[in-house]
Amino acid sequence: MIPSIDYLLLSAALFSIGAAGALLRRNALIVFISIELMLNAVNLSFVAFARQLGDMTGQVYVFFVLVVAAAEVVVGLAIIVSIYRTRASVDVDDADNLRG
Amino acid sequence: MSWVWLVPVLPLVGALVNGLFGRHISKRWVGWIGCSSIGLALIVSLGVLLDLLARPAGQQLFIQPLFDWMLGAQVAFQVDPLSALMIIVVSGVALLIHIYSIGYMSADSDYSRFFSWLNLFTFSMLLLVLADNFLLLFVGWELVGFCSYLLIGFWFRRPAAARAAKKAFIVNRIGDWGFLIGIFLIYVTFNSFDYQTVFSQAPGALVPGGALVTAITLLLFAGAVGKSAQIPLYVWLPDAMEGPTPVSALIHAATMVTAGVYMVVRAHALYALAPVSLELVAIIGAVTALIAATIALVHNDLKRVLAYSTISQLGYMFLAAGVGAYSAAIFHLMGNAFMKALLFLAAGSVMHALSGETDMRLMGGLYPKLKTTARTFLIGALAMSGIPPLIGFFSKDLILSETFARGHPVLYFIGLLTAILTAFYLLRAAFLTFFGRSRVRKELEPQVHESPPVMLWPLRGLAALSVLGGAVWISGTNFTPLEGFLRPVFADLPLKPEAVPAALGEGSLLIISVLAALVGIAIAWYLYLTRPSAADALARTFRPVYTLLRHKYWLDELYGALFVRPGIRLARFLATVFELRLLDGLVNGVGGLIDRSGGLLRRIETGYVRQYAALFLLGALGVLAYLFLMR
Does B597 touch chain A (CB under 8 A)? Predict the structure, then answer.
């Protein structure tokens, strides 16, 4: 059987890639994809722990995360589309109208 | 159980209807609503009186609770002979004044406002006299003061009216301050506001003549001094005639100024324990009566003379209350209500004829044109002077003889002197206004006309009351009807004072007071009808005295220098230095501090989403590190 540590290492790697993408890229769609990556990295670690501990709670949580992520995609994509319509750009650094 | 709650509620409803909807209904209906609410209240009051008379002796007191209030006090009405008499006098006189106002105010554009406030005024006074505890009394007391402010300043666009309204309110507040502290002391002592509780426990709980009861009674009296315009707080009443004349009539006769007398009489159980306070009440009453009468001697403004006459008559009432003749005080209160309302309304009728003129030097010879007004005014003046068998004769003579009989010869002579002066200045006013040579301005002369019937009938009614009202004091037995009626209220007092000294029996006292009135009338007759030049000559001869009286003993100027101007200076200091610098500085400083610290914090909001995310990550890592390290 694959040891849990492998899952966790993969999860950490995916999370780091996601975090780096969210912080470094300027295209809102890429930032968005990176966030999804981070969410799924967390999902992976949940499932790994659930298997190791023989407890279904972790797997149930994954469903919650998936549902929330789906809702977030709906709202987030809608916002990005409307930003694109008004500004003809999805560069996150351009959207600074509320800067103090 | 009883309809008595309707007595104050009906005028309140009238005030609300006219106040809220008066602008949308015709003047005719506004007048009807205003008068009928008071008229119904009068009918209910008479019903209450009949109910009271039907009760067996010893049970002529009942309390109608409406609902609980605070500190153990209820909103409850107490009906006993005293309050029953008061509600009849108040609603009766108020009704006639309301009817008169229909004619007097017919040209005013704020007709509904006037009637609404007039009703509210009557409601306040009825609440005051019906209250069964000191707290509710205080509510009525303040409402009366507030309504007087509204009505004196009814023509608020005139600076003089607005000033007079403010003056009345502020001077009253000074007295009310003492009144309120007196009520606090009562609550601290008795743990109750109820008349019944306080008065029945007073003899046991308070040391007769002790400091506490003296303080309570003096503080209560301070309120009465303010409300009933006695020395040193009478200065607001002469200015109060800036309001429309029916308002003056209402203030001077039925509502407001009689409240102080009523309160002292109501609290007689407390005053009986404080001989020092009673003595002071009597002295202030007598001195006020004299001082106000002397000022009235020389003034030429018809309404102002009547205003000082009111102060003087209130002085008589306090004199009576101070010597312990409470029935006499209430009797004179009732008589004054009829006579003073009559005199003021007649004066209003004269003003109506002369386009608002009040200066008696510009009147004279009006009798042929204003026959009803002149006759009723004369009746009022003669009644007030104490000519038998009018009501003023009975009440004034009663006060004087009681004062003498209860061992206050000095106060008696002050009262007697005042009686001469009263007869003089009232008849002087009558002669100057209605008789002699006409001094009316030429352009007004052709317009002089008698008032409409709606104004004359209240005059006739009040004149009839002034003539016949004395009947309540006529009897062959020891007890007069009014005295017997009021007896249950004063059941805790000894029945009669020690006998009158034989040398000056009641008969001779009576003759003396009638003579005093006749002397005053004779002097007025001589000076203003027989030899009109003599009055001016007299004024020249006694110029210093005349000037002193003309300037009302410079009391207004004295108060101005002592209180008003320092008060204005203090207010200006508070407004410019304290308010602008200190308070506004504090508020602006707090605002500035928040503004500046916000400016500093604003720098971290750069608008770069990725920077926020990085900070977010750092924060999350920080939390994680903290959790690991603290394990």
Answer: no
Q: A4-91 domain in CATH 1.10.287.3510? A: yes
SS3 B105: coil
List the single residue in B606, B607, B613 with the smallest CB-CB distance to A22: B613
**Higher pLDDT among residues B479 and B350, named by residue:** B350
B501 cis-preceded (ω within 30 degrees of 0): no
Kindly list the residues from chain B whose CB atom is less than 8 angstroms away from the CB atom of residue A31: 609-610
B543 pLDDT more than 90: no
Mean pLDDT of A53-66: 92
Domain borders along chain A are 4-91
Chain A residues interacting with chain B (CB cutoff of 8 angstroms): 19, 22-24, 26, 31, 92-93, 95-100
Instruction: For residues A67 and A46, give the distance between their C-alpha atoms in angstroms, rounded to a whole number.
Output: 15
The yes-or-no verdict on residue B211 having pLDDT over 80 is: yes
The alpha carbon of residue A1 is apart from the nearest alpha carbon of chain B, in Å, by 30
Which amino acid is residue B494, in one-letter code?
Answer: P
Among B377, B379, B310, B384, smallest CA distance to B350 is for B377
Q: Which helix (H) or strand (E) holds B66?
A: strand B62-68
pLDDT band at B619 (very low <50, low <70, confident <90, very high): very high
- Three-class SS state of B244: coil
Residue B194 backbone dihedrals phi, psi, to 5 degrees: -60, 135
- At residue A27, the 3 state secondary structure works out as strand
Q: How many CA atoms lie within 13 A of B5 on its CB side?
A: 9
- Strand-pair partners of B74: B68
Q: How far apart are CA B177 and CA B188, in angstroms?
A: 17
User: How does pLDDT run across A71-81, given as a tens digit for each residue?
Assistant: 999 999 999 99
Q: Is the ipTM of this complex over 0.85?
A: no
